[in-house]
Design goal:
The structure is a single chain. The chain has one domain: Glycoside hydrolase/deacetylase (TIM Barrel), CATH 3.20.20. The longest helix is centred in the last third of the chain and has 34 residues. By secondary structure, it is α/β, with parallel strands linked by helices. It has 8 helices and 10 strands. β4, α2 and β5 form a beta-alpha-beta unit. The strands form 3 sheets. Strands 1, 4, 5, 6, 7 and 10 form a 6-stranded parallel beta sheet that branches.
């Protein structure tokens, strides 16, 4: 399960993408109480590409936009200290960030619990059918250059600004070395070799962009909004339990298949 955070506030909520400090803490406590464990982007990537082992109920916590050291210190450090939960910083690599703000990000990265990933350069407008190649490539390439200059790493993931993407933009992202991409479509959780997608526009969800035409599920992964993620926790758990039951039901047939088809070439299962 991936959850995106845009603005946590201890004041009155004035925007659709804000979550109150009370509801934020309720969400984090509910995740922990229901057995979720936070992971890093690298862990999710290994799981999605090779089925590497991660906690059965994993959650990726993604904070969008340019947030200061203090923001992470106030809202997320306690969960790192209590439960060992990392957090992803979807960082806008704009030239508007001065040396002091960049140093804050370097300090967070070096502490080891804030996982920086790319969130564009100019950031807005969102990438869409009218975006030209120059703009798309700027949004994708500039963060790579900035990350290499400041963090000495290359980002693994591109968090699409505003949730906007196109097949061409995804192709460019792949060519530049991005291996995961995240939308703002809260279609559900993901599993190995299973990503919820849609091929057509949903009239009931006008802001959700169809991902199917991209033909690259790992570059258009869904994210839940922090404001209503809590109401989906049981649904996510039920999907995981149903999948586990189905796999267990089919395990004898899978093992027989391996013995007959695969073992002669690969040897017996350890």
């Amino acid at each position: 399960m991936t959850i995106m955070f845009h603005s946590i506030t201890d004041k009155a909520v004035t925007s659709f993408d804000q979550i109150s400090s009370y509801n934020f803490r309720v969400l984090m406590d509910a995740l922990h109480a229901k057995g979720f464990q936070a992971i890093t982007t690298a862990q999710l990537l290994a799981f999605m590409e090779t089925n590497a082992k991660i906690p059965a109920r994993s959650v990726l916590l993604v904070v969008d936009d340019r947030r200061t050291y203090t923001y992470f210190d106030v809202w997320f450090r306690e969960y790192w200290q209590k439960w060992g939960w990392p957090v992803v910083n979807a960082w806008i690599s704009t030239d508007l960030s001065g040396p002091a703000l960049w140093q804050q990000q370097v300090d967070l990265q070096n502490e080891g619990w804030v996982d920086h990933q790319a969130h564009g350069y100019q950031h807005m407008p969102s990438i869409g059918p009218d975006s030209n190649d120059v703009y798309i490539l700027q949004e994708l390439q500039k963060p790579i250059e900035a990350f290499q200059a400041h963090f000495h790493i290359k980002p693994l993931a591109f968090i699409w600004p505003g949730g906007g993407f196109t097949p061409q933009a995804v192709d460019y992202a792949r060519q530049l070395g991005y291996r995961l991409g995240f939308t703002t479509n809260p279609r559900g959780p993901v599993m190995f070799n299973w990503v919820p997608l849609s091929d057509v526009k949903d009239p009931q969800r006008s802001t959700w962009i169809p991902e199917g035409p991209v033909k690259d599920p790992l570059m258009v992964l869904p994210r839940y909004w922090d404001t209503d993620a809590i109401i989906h926790l049981d649904e996510v758990i039920q999907i995981g339990q149903a999948s586990a039951a189905y796999l267990e039901q089919n395990k004898p047939a899978e093992l027989d298949y391996y013995d007959i088809v695969c073992a002669p070439k690969l040897g017996p299962l350890p």
